[in-house]
Specification:
It contains 6 helices and 22 strands. The chain is mainly β. α1 crosses α4. Calcium ion binds next to α5.
């Protein structure tokens, strides 16, 4: 930066406090360009002052106030100290702000602090640290808003908001951490990617760049049961070791002579997790009516090693009456890339036989970054390829890819139309990896586990504890 920005900030700060200054003590340059000072009580009453540096304020000012705004600025720049005036009156508190902003490199950053009618510009200290000294009335409450912006204020990067009440002491300190800034709400071109993320990735936050392909919120991706591993992962608690069993058997009683339509519910679940996280999950469920029962069996094991957590399992849905068998087999491995990044790779095969045979084969390699205060990772890059076979013939392929730094997932489907047989391609961009997966499972509230739809945005369990 930072010299240019420092000068700009300095000027901005000077304009704001230019009509008066409060400090009789020499102060370092870094403080002199920051923030409002005690005189802002007056400034707040004369808001025009901030827009015209050379105009004499019309409000009555301290007799000791230097009326030459420009010369104050020069003095400050050269001497690093402010001109002497009255000390702040007793009903003002000096607030020292120390603010850590989200990481972003630019030489035109700006950090503004608003509290009621008071406005100040913070000064860059170094790295992501900024500071400001302001004088606010004691024992007063206002909404405090801190605005972090690039391009000298033109592009919002993040904001911090909190109701702040001054105390009765003469000085207070206020610290704001980078994580307290809301950066995701600032998306000037409304493409779903924040201004900060776009600038960091080198794209223009003001120009929507997905113009070549349709941009959708989610991926339409039918039938593959891609994230089925998650329906098992989410059943395991953090507790180790852990054993759980659940049995219910609601059989028909007194239904004669029309028992055929009565619903019944038989279920047996067992979950066992050892000290290091190896696990077995078995879930057998028979439901439906007496004359039309449906059997669902889920079984998977989890193996923890030094370098990975692996799942291996199967989900079966069987109805003898409907002549329907659906089998989903899956393998999945989560491995650590670094402390907060995980690779998530696997294969899911879904086969159905109901008159004809269908088969989906999905292979995926996804990179995810951990979500704070969560056991989940957010997918940030990766590749998913699914092929669909009908009676053994390839009917469509779908690929979903995203490189690190890309704004969107690129989705490409090739579908074989019949009559005449023609491959039709459909391409679009997706903001999120919303690959929905349904589980034809329990629907009744009195069961321990209800139906599961995959986590939104393709989030997955990333095993931060075990890796
Ligand atoms: Ca954007």
């Amino acid at each position: 930066m930072h010299r240019t920005a420092l000068l700009l900030l300095f000027i901005a700060g000077t304009l704001m406090v230019g009509c008066s200054s409060d400090s009789s003590e020499p102060r370092p340059l870094i403080d002199s360009s920051s923030a409002t000072t005690g005189a802002d009580i007056t400034v707040a009453d004369a808001p025009d002052l901030t827009t015209d540096a050379n105009q004499q304020p019309t409000v009555e000012l301290d007799s000791t106030t230097d009326s030459d705004v420009g010369s104050i600025g020069d003095d400050l720049l050269i001497n690093g100290s402010e001109t002497e005036t009255n000390p702040p009156t007793q009903n003002l508190a000096q607030i020292e702000f120390t603010i850590t902003v989200p990481v972003f490199m630019s030489d035109s950053l700006q950090l503004r602090i608003e509290w009621g009618e008071f406005e100040a510009t913070a000064t860059w200290v170094g790295d992501e640290i900024w500071s400001a000294t302001v004088f606010y009335p004691v024992n007063t409450e206002n909404l405090l808003t801190v605005r972090f912006a690039d391009n000298n204020g033109a592009i919002e990067l993040g904001t911090f908001e909190q109701v702040y009440r001054t105390g009765t002491s003469a000085s207070e300190a206020f610290q704001i951490a980078a994580s307290q800034f809301d950066t995701q709400s600032w998306d000037a071109d409304e493409d779903g990617i924040s201004n900060l993320d776009e600038l960091s990735a080198g794209t223009d936050p003001l120009v929507f760049e997905g113009e070549s392909l349709d941009v959708r919120d989610s991926v339409i991706f039918l039938g593959s049961h891609l994230f089925i591993t998650e329906s098992f992962s989410r059943r395991l608690p953090a507790e180790r070791p852990y054993n759980f069993s659940f049995d219910v058997s609601d059989l028909v009683e007194g239904c004669e002579p029309n028992c055929a339509d009565f619903l019944r519910n038989i279920r047996s679940v067992s979950i066992a997790v050892d000290e290091i996280g190896n696990a077995n999950v078995v879930d057998f469920h028979e439901r439906g009516s007496v004359s039309f029962p449906l059997n669902i069996t889920q079984e998977a094991s989890r193996i923890v090693s030094d370098s990975s957590v692996q799942w291996d399992g199967e989900w079966d849905n069987f109805s003898e009456v409907a002549d329907l068998t659906t089998t989903v087999t899956f393998t999945n491995e989560v491995a650590a890339i670094d402390e907060t990044t995980r690779s998530y790779t696997g294969r899911t095969i879904r086969s159905s036989i109901s008159g004809s045979s269908e088969r989906y084969v999905s292979d995926y390699t996804i990179t995810g970054s951990s979500i704070e205060n969560s056991t989940l990772c957010k997918p940030i890059a990766g590749s998913i390829v699914t092929s669909y076979f009908n009676e053994g013939d390839l009917v469509y392929t779908g690929t979903i890819t995203k490189n690190t730094g890309d704004l969107f997932w690129t989705v490409s489907f090739e579908n074989l139309d019949q009559n005449p047989p023609t491959w039709r391609e459909e391409d679009y961009l997706a903001r999120f990896l919303n690959v929905r997966y349904w589980q034809n499972d329990a629907t009744s509230d009195d069961l321990a586990f209800r139906g599961f739809v995959s986590e939104p945005e393709g989030k997955f369990h990333c095993d931060l504890i075990d890796l």
